[in-house]
Amino acid sequence: xxxxxxxxxxxxCSELEELLVQYQAVKGAEFQIDIFYSGEKLxxxxxxxxCPDLLFLDIALPGVNGVEVGKWIRQELMNExxxxxxxxxxxxxxxxxxxxxxxxxxxxxxxxxxxxxxxDEILKVRGRDMRCLExxxxxxxxxxxxxxxxxxxxxxxKLSVVTLEGTYExxxxxxxxxxK
Length: 180
What we know:
Layout: E1 2-6, H1 10-27, E2 32-36, H2 39-49, E3 54-58, H3 66-76, E4 83-88, H4 94-97, E5 104-107, H5 112-129, E6 132-137, E7 140-145, E8 149-155, E9 158-163, E10 167-171, H6 174-179
Parallel strand pairs: 1-2, 1-3, 3-4, 4-5
Antiparallel strand pairs: 6-7, 8-9, 9-10
Helix pairs in contact: 1-5, 2-3
């Protein structure tokens, strides 16, 4: 599972990363964790590399704040698969976040018990919709849940994945997709 942490407080990032590493060890999960300290650094990464499975996102980031990042993910990238967990020292932002459809909202400090319960819930939910068609195109990774795929189309080596959100094209063989 690809996890990104975006918070301008380095201590919060380190604490979250350490708790996630502990969770991996205890539960046998596999995470790839990357850290960002600003929305300005995160946005180009998301555009270039694609969205993660899970994003821990501080709300009060300087410059591009967490609400704007979440809105950009949902509206500009049209990504509904990424689970966004907002983190903040204050609960006053909660109402603003609904438009971005977050999975959860956590008040700092987070702590082991709270994070472990959250990760158990996330893995339970992800388990229901984890089966995805995965492919790469122009250096970007894509994961499309099978439930969102209307149909696949093949024209020689060019495959088209048609979903309600749009069509994704890449090179491959239909037989390879059937094996997945």
